[in-house]
Specification:
Number of strands: 2
Structural class: alpha+beta
Helix content: 25-40%
Largest sheet: 2 strands, parallel
Number of helices: 4
Radius of gyration: 22 Å
Shape: elongated
Strand order of the largest sheet: 1-2
């Protein structure tokens, strides 16, 4: 159902994002109990997905700012991907160009482990 010109369609439903229902002209979705893989919230075009959390979860479970991925993942795998994909011959120089690079120590340790293997 397409809204009349000058009107906005509003859909109120519970758990619509968890179903297979897709609303073609939906550009904004609100979700509760979000999972990491949930991003579209039943949208098929650019828009936003607002996720709702209990205050207790926000204060106890969620971090103010997440740790950058390069500081969370196994550095051996990252270095191996860089070298195998021929992105660079020097992992350290390549990784230090990242906006939030891993520590020099973690890259050194990863390269040492890879050489031992």
């Amino acid at each position: 159902m397409t809204p009349r010109p000058g009107c906005r369609k509003i859909v109120l439903a519970t758990n619509i994002c968890e179903t297979s229902v897709t609303i073609a002209d939906c550009v904004c979705g609100f979700k509760s109990e979000c999972k990491a893989k949930d991003r579209s919230c039943s949208r098929v075009q650019p828009g936003i997905c607002c996720k709702l959390y209990w205050l207790r979860a926000a204060n106890t479970v969620m971090k103010k700012q997440s740790t950058p991925e390069l500081q969370r993942v196994l550095m051996e795998e990252v270095c191996l991907s860089i070298l195998a994909g021929r992105r660079s011959e020097n992992c350290m120089n390549f990784l230090l160009q990242a906006p939030q690079p891993p520590s020099i120590e973690s890259v050194d340790n990863a390269l040492r482990v890879l050489k031992e293997v």
